[in-house]
Amino acid sequence: RLALAVEATGVGIWDFDPVSGALRWDDRCKALFGLPPSAEVDYGTFLAGLHPEDRGATDAAVRRALAPDGPGEYDIEYRTVGLEDRVERWVAAKGRAFFEGAGDARRAVRFLGTVRDIGERKAATQALREGEARLRGVLEGMGEGFALLDRDFRIREVNAEGMRLETRPREAIVGKTHWEAYPGSEGGELGRLYKRAMAERVPVGLEHRYTWQDGRDAWLDMRAYPTGDGLAVFYRDITQRKRAEARRLALVELSDRIRDIDDPAELSFAAAEILGRTLGVSRAGYGTIDTAAETI
After folding, report:
1. SS3 at position 46
2. Would you state the pLDDT for residue 27?
3. In the predicted model, what is the mean pLDDT of residues 11-30?
4. Which of 116, 145, 247, 254 is the most buried (most CB within 10 A)?
């Protein structure tokens, strides 16, 4: 029944006698090294079946487990290259050494463990890494800022465009909470929306005026989306768009205001007031132009 249970799990069993050098593999263990059930094996066979890049580290792990003053435990992942079929496989091996004697006479007398095929897991992990690399490439190439926040609102990542908008060094932002990196934001509308998105797991958005740490004034368009346990925040500078909108609205307002004004002074005052407000200045003046002398 035990043999059937082991076979059903796809686990191979190995048993090594460090004293005599005898090594016993079951059929599954042999298959993971590309060998038929009838193959004879020893420790040299084991080493020969390891991928060249993993051979040294795996041999060292075995020797550490068997050392009299070692841990006696063996837990490693390595690649095999089939000795007959030349197929490369990923294998996870676990084992334990058993000792006799004490002090200088202590020695390993048995080394017993299991192996299992982890090829599918490794392939899935590699695919995930490649997917993450592609996603990172997309995020880095975006024309808008991106920041990843964890559940504590700590900033875990900022893309290249986000850093360009910032001008501050990365260490001044990444690793800090949003409230630390952007003082005053927690109590404002932005902080309220971030907290709502995190708590209710809903997307939020806001167009807001923001003053960067170096004093630059800008309009930002922010969109935040819940991720696994945090928020993905996308933002872009829309200052030019906002200025263009303000100019269009100013022209519409100016047209409405001066439509029924006949007095040149009143007309000039209205135009200067709208222009000053649109440009964000505290004072705006006006004058008359002498077209013949080309003077104001």
Report:
1. helix
2. 93
3. 95
4. 145
